[in-house]
Amino acid sequence: MISHNQFDIKDSALAGDGRKRIEWAYREMPVIKLIRDRFVTEKPLKDIRIAGCLHITVETANLALTLEAGGANLILCASNPLSTQDDVAAALVEYDIPTNAIKGEDEATYYKHIDTALDSKPQLTVDDGADLVATLHANRKDLIGNVLGGTEETTTGVIRLRSLEKSGKLRYPIIAVNDAQTKYLFDNRYGTGQSTIDGITRATNILWAGKKVVICGYGWCGRGIALRAKGLGAHVMVTEVEPVRALEAVMDGYQVMPLLEAAKVGDIFITIAGNKNVLDKPHFQVMKDGAILANSGHFNAEINIPVLESMAKSKRNIRPFVDEYTLNDGRNLYLLGEGRLINLTAAEGHPASVMDMSFANQALCLEYIVKNRDKLETIVHPVPEEIDKRIARLKLQAMGIDIDSLTPEQEKYLTSWEEGT
């Protein structure tokens, strides 16, 4: 049993505000509500210990309450030092879900909180970025024997886990929730698109219309950001290393060019490539005075901050989440949110209605692991197709939308080869 005293938060007095915001978000999460209603009765996670390393937001709180309703013993920690909503963390503790997360925590505290979560000897892990799983595999191997399986929420984490699997070091099965169609087609595109623009706007109060915006990476998240920036009147440029994605960006109407060329003309740079040092010294050297640098990828490695620090003769915080770097030649570059994911650093992350589907995937995949614990290979698994489709149907149902079904004749036609011209 996980001790309810294993928590570390900023201020318990914030719980009342957190509760109200959690309730507000729940209104926009009808699929999670349907799952919670069933979990309350069936208790599919009864007495299962779960450690969750997630962004501590109102949407995460509603996932946590759903898992708790299913009988789970749950402990949470943050998956990013700047993404925690302190009032939500306080509310979760009041809900008797031990939470270890403080917005702005240093790296030592961040990993201490992960270790506290692992001290619970989890049977399931829920990760966003794979720091929990990586720590478990690197430093807490003695606990792996307890683990039935896990889930991973984001692209960066799935990349890390597939690398772990390829190296032969993955020790338990994990479902790549990020790769569900009801996750990446919606959360990554619409959620990241809107929340990234929201975070940059809150941090800077800029007018997007007329700005030259450089999107570094044209995966599903990059597509969403480009779409929203274009809708606000920005001139959008895309940089890519994958030829098919670059071609798609051209066909979607964006200007595609090498990043070093875009660096000379861009007003706002948004990294979303999932790689390190995407923006680096050669780019900083040619950027114009006043350029704004933001990252919406999971880790703060996409902008080479140590190099930017070394190039600056001075640095000051000019407004919340905006650091001004004055270079030796007098140019000013503005880094947002310490280079961490701007949608959660300076704003509230994805809208609840989008996270509804992502976290429905989490809940149902955890249930699936428990039910199939003896059948799953020790690999990174896709989300079962039946779960993906069930979530899509539940979402449509909640929106009051009906769709057609195949007739028996049509089903037969799709599985036969005899009929032709």
Number of helices: 17
Overall pLDDT metric: 96
* CATH architectural group of the largest domain: 3-Layer(aba) Sandwich
**CATH-assigned fold name of the largest domain:** Rossmann fold
Kindly report the spatial arrangement of strands forming the biggest sheet: 9-8-7-10-11-14-13-12
Largest sheet: 8 strands, mixed
Q: How much helical structure, as a percent, in the residues?
A: 40-55%
Query: What's the CATH class of the largest domain, please?
Result: Alpha Beta
Distance between the termini: 65 Å
Structural class: alpha/beta
Number of domains: 2
Low-confidence stretches: none
CATH superfamily placement of the largest domain: Adenosylhomocysteinase-like
How many beta-strand elements?
A: 15
Structure characteristics:
single chain, 421 residues, alpha/beta, Rossmann fold, eight-stranded mixed beta sheet, seven-stranded parallel beta sheet, 17 helices
Q: How would you characterize the overall build of this protein?
A:
The chain is an alpha/beta fold. The longest helix has 24 residues, at about 180-205. Strand 1 (about 50-55), helix 3 (about 60-70) and strand 2 form a beta-alpha-beta unit. Helix 8 packs across helix 9 (about 220-230) and helix 8 (about 180-205) runs antiparallel to helix 15. It is built from 17 helices and 15 strands. The strands form two sheets. An eight-stranded mixed beta sheet has the order 9-8-7-10-11-14-13-12. The chain has two domains: about 10-185 and about 350-400, Adenosylhomocysteinase-like (Rossmann fold), CATH 3.40.50; about 190-345, Rossmann fold, CATH 3.40.50.720. The mean pLDDT is about 95. The N and C termini lie far apart (about 65 Å). It has helices at about 15-25, 30-40, 60-70, 85-95, 105-120, 130-140, 155-165, 180-205, 220-230, 245-250, 260, 280-285, 305-310, 340-345, 350-370, 385-400, 410-415; strands at about 50-55, 75-80, 100, 125, 150, 175, 210-215, 235-240, 255, 270, 290-295, 310-320, 320-325, 330-335, 380.
